[in-house]
């Protein structure tokens, strides 16, 4: 089976409170044991090797979709599409919006409905958007 979706991830560093973007061309997710993860990634200071405890990171996957503004949509993003506001999750083999605020109850919440919606934050940096 083949797919046109690029397999990309981003990593939220809970201690440094910053996003790290693993380099897909240097995808070595090796670790220094069962409690750590090591990878090449980009951050503001450039390309580097990062080794972090698995308990201090959250790894989120790219959905393959972009919002109305061309912004990549990842798991954990908070999105709004006019019908719902919620966070993007993966379950039962698909990405979906977990609606927290129903702006128009009963409307579909599938990811394809986001082509006219937008990413307004994420659950790590702006969880208050879900209240």
Protein topology:
Layout: E1 9-13, E2 18-22, E3 36-43, E4 46-53, E5 57-66, E6 72-74, E7 77-80, E8 84-91, E9 94-102, E10 118-122
Antiparallel strand pairs: 1-2, 1-5, 2-3, 3-4, 5-6, 7-8, 7-10, 8-9
Label this structure with key terms.
globular, 10 strands, six-stranded antiparallel sheet, SH3 type barrels, 0% helix, 2 domains, 131 residues, mainly beta
Oligomer status: single chain
Per CATH, the class of the largest domain reads: Mainly Beta
Number of domains: 2
Low-pLDDT stretches are: none
Reading side by side through the largest sheet, how are the strands ordered?
Answer: 4-3-2-1-5-6
Assign a percent range to the helix content: under 10%
Approximate strand percentage? over 45%
Number of helices: 0
- What is the CATH fold-level name of the largest domain? SH3 type barrels
SSE arrangement, N to C: EEEEEEEEEE
Going by CATH, the architecture of the largest domain would be: Roll
Short structural description:
This protein is mainly β and 131 residues long. The protein has strands at 9-13, 18-22, 36-43, 46-53, 57-66, 72-74, 77-80, 84-91, 94-102, 118-122.
Account of the protein in words:
It is a single chain. The protein has 131 residues and is mostly beta strands. The protein folds into two domains: 9-58, no CATH class; 62-130, YopX-like domains (SH3 type barrels, Roll). It has strands at residues 9-13, 18-22, 36-43, 46-53, 57-66, 72-74, 77-80, 84-91, 94-102, 118-122. The strands form two sheets. A six-stranded antiparallel sheet has the order 4-3-2-1-5-6, with no helix packed on it. A four-stranded antiparallel sheet has the order 9-8-7-10, with no helix packed on it. The termini are far apart. The relative contact order is 0.17.
């Amino acid at each position: 089976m083949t797919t046109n979706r690029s397999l990309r991830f981003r990593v939220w560093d809970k201690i440094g409170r910053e996003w790290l973007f693993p380099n897909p061309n240097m995808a070595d997710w090796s670790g220094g044991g069962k409690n750590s993860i090591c990878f090449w990634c980009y951050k503001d200071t450039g390309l580097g090797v990062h080794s972090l405890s698995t308990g201090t990171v959250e790894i989120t996957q790219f959905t393959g979709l972009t919002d109305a503004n061309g912004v990549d949509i990842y798991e954990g993003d908070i999105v709004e599409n006019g019908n719902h506001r919620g966070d993007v999750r993966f379950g039962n083999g698909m990405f979906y919006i977990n609606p927290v605020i129903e702006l128009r109850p009963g409307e579909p919440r599938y990811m394809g409905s986001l082509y006219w919606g937008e990413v307004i934050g994420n659950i790590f940096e702006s969880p208050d958007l879900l209240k």
